[in-house]
Specification:
Layout: H1 2-7, H2 23-27, E1 31-33, H3 35-38, E2 42-44, E3 47-52, E4 55-61, H4 73-79
Antiparallel strand pairs: 1-2, 3-4
GO biological process, one term: cellular response to oxidative stress
GO cellular component, one term: mitochondrion
Keywords: Antioxidant, Oxidoreductase, Peroxidase
């Protein structure tokens, strides 16, 4: 995500946010039980969310929580 953000330069119109403690993930119900892969841990499902002026314009959530069939950078570009 950092490389993508940096490639847009200083005049970008896209804001990139991180949810390091998982509070936002829990609030929107996108937790993924990764205990079978990583031990006793909850992770965030792969998703993309486009928000414009505080309103969600698009939300793509990966059906299995881990793939990149609808939440990759290319998918963002198709929407915007």
């Amino acid at each position: 995500m950092s490389a993508w953000r940096e490639s847009l330069g200083k005049n970008r119109k896209i804001e990139f946010l991180a949810d390091t403690c998982g509070e936002f993930t829990k609030a929107i119900g996108l937790e993924f039980d990764a205990s079978s892969l990583l031990g006793n841990v909850m992770r965030c499902k792969h998703f993309l969310m486009i928000v414009n002026h505080g309103k969600v314009k698009a939300l793509n959530v990966e059906p299995d929580g881990t793939s990149l069939t609808c939440s990759a950078a290319e998918d963002v570009l198709k929407i915007i």
